[in-house]
Write a structure and sequence with these properties.
Elements (H helix, E strand, L loop, with lengths): L11 H16 L12 E6 L5 H12 L3 E5 L13 H8 L5 E6 L4 H7 L5 E6 L5 H15 L6 E5 L6 H10 L6 E5 L8 H9 L5 E4 L2 H4 L5 E4 L10 H7 L7 H4 L7 E3 L20 H19 L7
Parallel strand pairs: 1-2, 1-3, 3-4, 5-6, 5-8, 6-7, 8-9
Helix pairs in contact: 1-5, 1-11, 2-11, 3-4, 5-6, 5-11
The structure holds phosphoric acid mono(formamide)ester.
Protein backbone atom coordinates (compact mmCIF):
# COMPACT_ATOMS: atom_id res chain seq x y z
CA UNK A 1 0.00 0.00 0.00
CA UNK A 2 1.88 2.98 -1.32
CA UNK A 3 0.80 6.63 -1.11
CA UNK A 4 1.79 9.38 -3.57
CA UNK A 5 2.44 12.73 -1.91
CA UNK A 6 5.08 14.19 -4.20
CA UNK A 7 6.22 13.39 -7.73
CA UNK A 8 9.65 12.77 -6.16
CA UNK A 9 8.18 9.77 -4.32
CA UNK A 10 8.59 8.10 -7.73
CA UNK A 11 11.96 7.29 -9.28
CA UNK A 12 12.69 8.47 -12.80
CA UNK A 13 12.31 4.85 -13.96
CA UNK A 14 8.90 4.59 -12.28
CA UNK A 15 7.80 7.84 -13.93
CA UNK A 16 8.99 6.55 -17.29
CA UNK A 17 6.95 3.37 -16.76
CA UNK A 18 3.84 5.44 -15.90
CA UNK A 19 4.35 7.55 -19.02
CA UNK A 20 4.82 4.44 -21.18
CA UNK A 21 1.58 2.98 -19.82
CA UNK A 22 -0.29 6.28 -20.25
CA UNK A 23 0.93 6.54 -23.84
CA UNK A 24 -0.76 3.20 -24.49
CA UNK A 25 -4.04 4.80 -23.39
CA UNK A 26 -3.43 7.76 -25.72
CA UNK A 27 -3.30 5.23 -28.54
CA UNK A 28 -6.14 3.07 -27.21
CA UNK A 29 -8.21 4.62 -24.36
CA UNK A 30 -10.34 1.50 -23.88
CA UNK A 31 -7.35 -0.76 -23.27
CA UNK A 32 -7.59 -2.48 -19.84
CA UNK A 33 -11.21 -1.38 -19.45
CA UNK A 34 -11.89 -4.15 -16.92
CA UNK A 35 -8.77 -4.19 -14.72
CA UNK A 36 -10.40 -2.25 -11.88
CA UNK A 37 -13.73 -4.09 -11.98
CA UNK A 38 -14.94 -4.32 -8.36
CA UNK A 39 -12.55 -1.58 -7.14
CA UNK A 40 -13.61 1.82 -5.82
CA UNK A 41 -11.89 5.20 -5.89
CA UNK A 42 -12.82 7.79 -3.23
CA UNK A 43 -12.31 11.43 -4.22
CA UNK A 44 -12.11 13.54 -1.04
CA UNK A 45 -11.90 17.14 -2.18
CA UNK A 46 -11.87 19.82 0.52
CA UNK A 47 -11.12 22.47 -2.11
CA UNK A 48 -12.68 23.21 -5.53
CA UNK A 49 -11.56 21.28 -8.60
CA UNK A 50 -12.77 20.51 -12.08
CA UNK A 51 -9.94 18.69 -13.86
CA UNK A 52 -8.27 16.78 -11.06
CA UNK A 53 -11.39 15.35 -9.47
CA UNK A 54 -13.25 14.60 -12.69
CA UNK A 55 -10.21 13.20 -14.47
CA UNK A 56 -9.57 10.87 -11.51
CA UNK A 57 -13.18 9.75 -11.67
CA UNK A 58 -13.09 9.38 -15.45
CA UNK A 59 -9.84 7.40 -15.15
CA UNK A 60 -11.34 4.95 -12.64
CA UNK A 61 -14.49 4.52 -14.75
CA UNK A 62 -12.36 3.90 -17.87
CA UNK A 63 -10.72 1.04 -15.97
CA UNK A 64 -14.06 -0.51 -15.03
CA UNK A 65 -14.03 0.71 -11.42
CA UNK A 66 -16.47 2.83 -9.47
CA UNK A 67 -16.19 6.18 -7.69
CA UNK A 68 -17.56 7.84 -4.58
CA UNK A 69 -16.64 10.94 -2.65
CA UNK A 70 -17.30 14.57 -1.85
CA UNK A 71 -16.38 17.74 -3.72
CA UNK A 72 -16.19 20.30 -0.91
CA UNK A 73 -15.44 20.42 2.80
CA UNK A 74 -18.94 21.83 3.34
CA UNK A 75 -20.57 18.71 1.97
CA UNK A 76 -18.56 16.37 4.22
CA UNK A 77 -18.42 15.96 7.99
CA UNK A 78 -15.34 18.23 8.01
CA UNK A 79 -18.02 20.93 8.34
CA UNK A 80 -18.91 19.38 11.74
CA UNK A 81 -15.28 19.34 12.82
CA UNK A 82 -14.16 15.84 11.80
CA UNK A 83 -10.39 15.48 11.38
CA UNK A 84 -8.75 14.28 8.16
CA UNK A 85 -7.29 11.29 10.02
CA UNK A 86 -10.72 10.15 11.26
CA UNK A 87 -12.22 10.67 7.81
CA UNK A 88 -9.59 8.54 6.06
CA UNK A 89 -9.95 5.75 8.65
CA UNK A 90 -13.59 5.53 7.64
CA UNK A 91 -12.98 5.95 3.89
CA UNK A 92 -10.45 3.08 4.12
CA UNK A 93 -13.36 0.72 4.71
CA UNK A 94 -15.44 2.18 1.86
CA UNK A 95 -12.91 2.34 -1.00
CA UNK A 96 -9.68 0.78 -2.34
CA UNK A 97 -7.82 4.01 -3.16
CA UNK A 98 -8.31 7.71 -2.34
CA UNK A 99 -7.43 10.95 -4.11
CA UNK A 100 -7.44 13.87 -1.66
CA UNK A 101 -7.25 17.63 -2.24
CA UNK A 102 -6.95 19.92 0.77
CA UNK A 103 -6.18 23.62 1.29
CA UNK A 104 -3.72 22.81 4.10
CA UNK A 105 -0.19 21.78 3.15
CA UNK A 106 0.51 18.27 4.42
CA UNK A 107 -3.12 17.24 5.04
CA UNK A 108 -3.00 14.36 2.49
CA UNK A 109 0.24 13.19 4.13
CA UNK A 110 -1.47 13.11 7.53
CA UNK A 111 -4.30 11.14 5.93
CA UNK A 112 -1.86 8.66 4.39
CA UNK A 113 -0.38 7.95 7.84
CA UNK A 114 -3.81 6.85 9.12
CA UNK A 115 -4.98 5.08 5.99
CA UNK A 116 -5.36 1.43 5.09
CA UNK A 117 -5.56 2.29 1.37
CA UNK A 118 -3.23 4.25 -0.96
CA UNK A 119 -3.77 8.03 -0.67
CA UNK A 120 -2.88 10.26 -3.60
CA UNK A 121 -2.19 13.94 -2.99
CA UNK A 122 -4.48 15.74 -5.45
CA UNK A 123 -3.10 19.15 -4.40
CA UNK A 124 -2.28 20.42 -0.91
CA UNK A 125 -2.38 24.18 -0.42
CA UNK A 126 0.51 25.98 -2.14
CA UNK A 127 2.74 22.93 -1.67
CA UNK A 128 2.49 20.11 -4.23
CA UNK A 129 0.32 18.71 -6.99
CA UNK A 130 2.06 15.51 -8.09
CA UNK A 131 -0.59 14.18 -10.46
CA UNK A 132 -0.59 17.51 -12.31
CA UNK A 133 3.18 17.10 -12.61
CA UNK A 134 2.76 13.59 -14.01
CA UNK A 135 0.23 15.04 -16.47
CA UNK A 136 2.73 17.73 -17.45
CA UNK A 137 5.53 15.19 -17.92
CA UNK A 138 3.32 12.99 -20.10
CA UNK A 139 2.31 16.01 -22.19
CA UNK A 140 5.89 17.16 -22.66
CA UNK A 141 7.23 13.68 -23.43
CA UNK A 142 4.41 12.83 -25.85
CA UNK A 143 4.30 16.15 -27.70
CA UNK A 144 7.93 17.25 -27.49
CA UNK A 145 9.46 13.79 -27.71
CA UNK A 146 11.79 14.15 -24.74
CA UNK A 147 12.08 15.33 -21.15
CA UNK A 148 15.76 16.32 -21.30
CA UNK A 149 17.63 19.27 -22.80
CA UNK A 150 14.74 21.70 -22.63
CA UNK A 151 14.53 25.41 -21.81
CA UNK A 152 11.35 25.80 -19.81
CA UNK A 153 9.71 29.17 -19.20
CA UNK A 154 7.56 29.30 -16.06
CA UNK A 155 5.32 32.35 -16.06
CA UNK A 156 2.92 33.94 -13.59
CA UNK A 157 2.45 33.15 -9.93
CA UNK A 158 5.57 31.18 -9.10
CA UNK A 159 5.21 31.83 -5.36
CA UNK A 160 1.86 30.17 -4.70
CA UNK A 161 1.56 27.98 -7.80
CA UNK A 162 1.95 24.43 -6.50
CA UNK A 163 2.02 23.00 -10.02
CA UNK A 164 5.17 24.99 -10.73
CA UNK A 165 6.84 23.82 -7.51
CA UNK A 166 6.14 20.18 -8.31
CA UNK A 167 7.21 20.58 -11.94
CA UNK A 168 10.56 22.15 -11.06
CA UNK A 169 11.28 19.33 -8.60
CA UNK A 170 10.50 16.70 -11.22
CA UNK A 171 12.26 18.30 -14.21
CA UNK A 172 15.60 18.93 -12.49
CA UNK A 173 16.15 15.17 -12.59
CA UNK A 174 16.54 15.26 -16.38
CA UNK A 175 19.85 16.38 -17.92
CA UNK A 176 20.19 19.67 -19.76
CA UNK A 177 17.03 21.27 -18.38
CA UNK A 178 17.21 25.02 -17.72
CA UNK A 179 14.51 27.32 -16.40
CA UNK A 180 13.49 30.87 -17.18
CA UNK A 181 11.26 32.15 -14.35
CA UNK A 182 9.00 34.99 -15.44
CA UNK A 183 7.07 36.66 -12.62
CA UNK A 184 6.53 39.93 -10.75
CA UNK A 185 9.10 40.34 -7.94
CA UNK A 186 6.43 39.58 -5.32
CA UNK A 187 5.55 36.26 -6.95
CA UNK A 188 9.01 34.76 -7.44
CA UNK A 189 9.61 31.11 -6.56
CA UNK A 190 9.99 30.34 -2.83
CA UNK A 191 13.52 30.54 -1.40
CA UNK A 192 13.52 26.87 -0.44
CA UNK A 193 13.16 25.86 -4.10
CA UNK A 194 15.82 28.29 -5.25
CA UNK A 195 18.33 27.16 -2.62
CA UNK A 196 17.56 23.48 -2.01
CA UNK A 197 16.57 22.41 -5.52
CA UNK A 198 18.04 24.78 -8.10
CA UNK A 199 21.23 26.11 -6.48
CA UNK A 200 22.02 22.85 -4.68
CA UNK A 201 21.54 20.86 -7.89
CA UNK A 202 23.63 23.27 -10.01
CA UNK A 203 20.61 23.85 -12.27
CA UNK A 204 20.81 26.71 -14.76
CA UNK A 205 18.04 29.30 -14.32
CA UNK A 206 17.31 33.00 -14.51
CA UNK A 207 14.54 35.18 -13.10
CA UNK A 208 13.05 37.95 -15.25
CA UNK A 209 10.05 40.30 -15.32
CA UNK A 210 9.39 40.62 -19.06
CA UNK A 211 7.87 37.73 -21.00
CA UNK A 212 8.51 39.14 -24.48
CA UNK A 213 12.29 39.31 -23.92
CA UNK A 214 12.64 35.58 -23.28
CA UNK A 215 9.99 34.02 -25.53
CA UNK A 216 12.45 33.39 -28.43
CA UNK A 217 14.66 31.13 -26.30
CA UNK A 218 11.97 28.80 -24.91
CA UNK A 219 11.14 25.19 -25.82
CA UNK A 220 8.13 25.25 -23.49
CA UNK A 221 6.14 28.02 -21.86
CA UNK A 222 4.24 26.95 -18.74
CA UNK A 223 1.69 29.65 -17.95
CA UNK A 224 -0.03 29.86 -14.57
CA UNK A 225 -2.82 31.96 -13.12
CA UNK A 226 -2.31 34.25 -10.13
CA UNK A 227 -3.66 32.19 -7.22
CA UNK A 228 -6.31 34.49 -5.78
CA UNK A 229 -7.25 32.05 -3.01
CA UNK A 230 -3.73 32.14 -1.52
CA UNK A 231 -3.49 35.96 -1.23
CA UNK A 232 -3.90 37.62 2.14
CA UNK A 233 -5.43 40.75 0.68
CA UNK A 234 -7.53 41.43 -2.40
CA UNK A 235 -5.69 44.67 -3.30
CA UNK A 236 -2.44 42.79 -3.94
CA UNK A 237 -4.28 40.23 -6.05
CA UNK A 238 -5.93 42.91 -8.18
CA UNK A 239 -2.61 44.72 -8.66
CA UNK A 240 -0.80 41.55 -9.77
CA UNK A 241 -3.44 39.45 -11.50
CA UNK A 242 -2.86 40.70 -15.04
CA UNK A 243 0.93 40.94 -14.86
CA UNK A 244 1.33 38.63 -17.85
CA UNK A 245 -1.10 38.02 -20.66
CA UNK A 246 0.00 35.79 -23.50
CA UNK A 247 -1.75 36.71 -26.73
CA UNK A 248 -1.44 36.03 -30.44
CA UNK A 249 0.87 39.03 -30.93
CA UNK A 250 3.33 37.78 -28.32
CA UNK A 251 3.18 34.26 -29.77
CA UNK A 252 4.80 35.68 -32.94
CA UNK A 253 7.98 36.13 -30.88
CA UNK A 254 8.05 32.45 -29.86
CA UNK A 255 9.76 29.61 -31.75
CA UNK A 256 7.57 27.69 -34.19
CA UNK A 257 7.83 24.53 -32.08
CA UNK A 258 7.47 26.09 -28.61
CA UNK A 259 4.62 24.44 -26.71
CA UNK A 260 2.32 26.41 -24.41
CA UNK A 261 1.15 24.48 -21.36
CA UNK A 262 -1.15 25.61 -18.55
CA UNK A 263 -2.49 23.44 -15.72
CA UNK A 264 -5.81 25.34 -15.99
CA UNK A 265 -8.11 26.90 -14.91
CA UNK A 266 -7.17 29.93 -16.98
CA UNK A 267 -8.35 33.37 -15.93
CA UNK A 268 -6.85 36.17 -18.09
CA UNK A 269 -3.26 35.03 -18.53
CA UNK A 270 -3.78 33.43 -21.95
CA UNK A 271 -6.00 35.31 -24.40
CA UNK A 272 -8.50 33.09 -26.15
CA UNK A 273 -6.98 34.11 -29.50
CA UNK A 274 -4.06 31.77 -28.65
CA UNK A 275 -6.31 28.71 -28.37
CA UNK A 276 -6.27 27.94 -32.10
CA UNK A 277 -2.48 28.13 -32.31
CA UNK A 278 -1.14 24.57 -32.81
CA UNK A 279 1.47 25.30 -30.12
CA UNK A 280 -1.28 25.79 -27.50
CA UNK A 281 -1.63 22.33 -25.96
CA UNK A 282 -3.30 23.09 -22.63
CA UNK A 283 -6.61 21.42 -23.48
CA UNK A 284 -4.82 18.32 -24.74
CA UNK A 285 -2.79 18.45 -21.48
CA UNK A 286 -6.06 18.30 -19.49
CA UNK A 287 -7.11 15.27 -21.56
CA UNK A 288 -3.77 13.57 -20.90
CA UNK A 289 -4.53 13.98 -17.18
CA UNK A 290 -7.03 11.14 -17.51
CA UNK A 291 -4.50 8.79 -19.11
CA UNK A 292 -1.72 9.35 -16.56
CA UNK A 293 -4.20 8.93 -13.69
CA UNK A 294 -5.36 5.65 -15.23
CA UNK A 295 -1.73 4.52 -15.24
CA UNK A 296 -1.24 5.70 -11.65
CA UNK A 297 -4.37 4.01 -10.30
CA UNK A 298 -3.37 0.74 -11.96
CA UNK A 299 0.15 0.99 -10.56
CA UNK A 300 -0.88 1.81 -6.97
CA UNK A 301 -3.56 -0.89 -7.01
CA UNK A 302 -1.05 -3.32 -8.56
CA UNK A 303 -3.45 -4.40 -11.30
CA UNK A 304 -1.14 -4.15 -14.31
CA UNK A 305 -1.63 -7.14 -16.61
CA UNK A 306 1.17 -8.50 -18.79
CA UNK A 307 1.23 -6.30 -21.92
N1 LIG B 1 -5.10 21.70 -12.87
C1 LIG B 1 -5.97 21.56 -11.83
O1 LIG B 1 -5.57 21.17 -10.73
O2 LIG B 1 -7.24 21.92 -12.12
P1 LIG B 1 -8.45 21.81 -11.09
O3 LIG B 1 -8.19 22.78 -9.97
O4 LIG B 1 -9.67 22.14 -11.88
O5 LIG B 1 -8.44 20.41 -10.55
Amino acid sequence: MRPLMNALDLTVDEINELIDLAEKFIQEPTRFSEVCRGKKLATCFYEPSTRTRLSFESAMMNLGGQVLGFSSADSSSAAKGESVSDTIRVISSYADICAMRHPKEGAPLVASLHSQIPVINAGDGGHNHPTQTLTDLLTIKNLKGRLDHLTIGLCGDLKFGRTVHSLIGAMVRYPGVRFVMISPDELRIPDYLRKDTLDAGGIEYKEVNVLEDVLPELDLLYMTRVQRERFFNEEDYIRLKDSFILDRKKMKLAPKDMLVLHPLPRVNEIATDVDDDPRAVYFKQAQYGVYIRMALIMTLLEVIPEC
